[in-house]
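Researcher: Quick test of sequence recovery. Tokens follow.
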């Protein structure tokens, strides 16, 4: 993906993400690129400085990513320690808890995409619990 700095005929500045330069050109010719401020279809690319990542920035990014992964691992560990594993019955049990048919408690388990969609449509608060390669050891 390429991020372009864009501006419209009214000089409103904004950004857009495209698969390629040709993708921007194709969408622009079809009037699919519009200014989010005024709705103008007369959008052009603005001059941009290239985005260059230095070694120092990469090191900072690696440290931040490592910290984020460790925090996610900590959250997953705490959930597993303090919640009940209900396996494939997750959707059914989450719905029972939500509607007061079962005692309030933390649970985790597995659910299909359709089950997740249905739970969200019913207003059941859920979130995915990440698994990491070392979880399978």
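Model:
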């Amino acid at each position: 993906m390429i991020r372009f700095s864009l501006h419209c005929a009214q000089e409103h500045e904004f950004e857009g993400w495209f698969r390629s330069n040709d993708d921007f050109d194709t969408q622009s010719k079809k009037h699919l690129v519009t200014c989010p401020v005024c709705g103008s279809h007369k959008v052009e690319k603005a001059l941009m400085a290239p985005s260059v990542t230095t070694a120092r920035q990469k090191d900072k990014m690696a440290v931040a990513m490592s910290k984020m992964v460790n925090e996610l691992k900590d959250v997953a560990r705490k959930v597993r320690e303090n919640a009940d594993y209900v396996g494939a019955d997750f959707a059914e049990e989450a719905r029972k808890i939500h509607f007061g048919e079962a005692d309030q408690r933390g649970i985790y388990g597995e659910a299909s995409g359709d089950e997740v969609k249905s739970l969200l449509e019913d207003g059941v608060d859920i979130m995915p619990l990440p698994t990491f390669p070392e979880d399978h050891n």
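The mean pLDDT is 92.
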